[in-house]
Amino acid sequence: MSREVLNAINVCLDVYSIFISLIIVISIFSIKKIENSAKWFAITNLIAVFYGFSDIFKRISDGTDLAWKLFTLPASSFLYYCLGSLLFLFYIRYVIEYYSQFEKLSKIWWYFCVGTIIVYNIFTILSPFTGFFFRIDENNIYHRGKFFALCIGIELLLYLEVLLLVIKFHRKISNAENIGFASFIFCPFICQIIQIANYGISLNSLGLTISFFIIYINMNTQLKNRLQNTESQLNVLDNKKTNLLNNTIINLSELIEHKDTVSKHTKRITKYARLIAKTCKKNGLYDNIIDKNFIEIISKTAAFHDIGNVVVPHPIITKPMKVTPEEYEIIKNHAEVGSNMVNDVLAVGFEREFIEMACDICKYHHERWDGKGYPQKLKGKEIPLSARIVALADVFDALVTPRCYKNTVSFEEAFHIIDNESGKQFDPELVMEFLKIKNKLIEITDTYSDSSIED
């Protein structure tokens, strides 16, 4: 195979290697926050880009007496060896930085690398004058130097250092990562052996590119796994935060509504509302509105329905008889006050859909199907579905559990009252679904009765 053909092949291999290394460099530095070890790996690939260019200039300048090539061949040959040593320097620094996250490494590893590279470069500096690693003959043709084998020997020492580090830490990292680090040892080394046996073809850059690409794939996999773990941890923290805020408001609602007694009214309302919504979904009622997300949200936001009672004076809340018209007007204020409170409290940390449903429930759960409710006298389907569901649950609980101003009624009587209010106070379609689940509603009432002991 002619020198021209070999040079063309080598240039193509170098261009391919440069292209891959550039992709790796750009990809790593495009990440806003990267680990220190990743920076060293990116710098290693940046050096590999210049290493590839130096080899290209060495190839295209070889064997010609053009003036500029008489300069570029020795210069590019010199840079080729220098940059080759820097590849080891920065790669080993990357390996040391990576393993340092598991164990503090002795500085001897770094000092050995730096010392070896210094010796290597001293010989490289001498080469243009002595032909130590390489020489340029009178025809401007590159040849390996008389001590080229020493160059290979020094590289073997650096490969050995990487191998020892891999062996030392192989149990602390995944098999894929071990393969990545080991690829830097074997891919370039195997290419080096092939290159020695087949003088004229240059596979160094290709060997490095293969190993760097394997490492880069592993790095991306590790980054993806860390991002997934971080996302999972953030979801856990977000759920804890949501539950904390949710439980705080539930407990606050209980305290506001029942200042002097222990009650599980809020707990029951959330259970009733969830059951009604699930029954509607099962039977296809309002299937354009009620989905899994709607059910999950209403089972939490129903608890906020009477939080606005904080503005109602305590004597009115606990009055053991019917309130006066004036007192009733004061009570009616709690709907809008509660909506505003919930909007302000949930503004940080909750999705807009969650906030909107909570506000709707607070504001509209005293509206009536016939338009005679408050605060805005909405009627029919003008009333948000979530508020219509909670209104039904709230009245049922008020009927079957004790209040300071009334006695309880039996379950059958409660169901009868609600049935009679179908199309008046309540959504008639919701009432139909409500009456289908009498036994489950009774079970919730008994399970979360004010006299029960909650786990």
Q: In order across it, which strands form the biggest sheet?
A: 1-2
Major β-sheet annotation = 2 strands, antiparallel
Topology as H/E string? HHHHEEHHHHHHHHHHHHH
Quick check: average pLDDT? 85
Description:
- The chain is mainly α and 455 residues long.
- The chain has 17 helices and 2 strands.
- Strands 1-2 form a two-stranded antiparallel sheet.
- The N and C termini lie far apart (85 Å).
- The model has no long low-confidence stretch (mean pLDDT 85).
Keywords:
mainly alpha; 455 residues
Spell out the blueprint of helices and strands:
Elements: H1 3-29, H2 36-61, H3 67-99, H4 108-130, E1 134-136, E2 142-144, H5 148-169, H6 175-197, H7 204-257, H8 265-282, H9 292-301, H10 314-317, H11 325-332, H12 334-346, H13 352-364, H14 385-400, H15 411-420, H16 428-435, H17 438-447
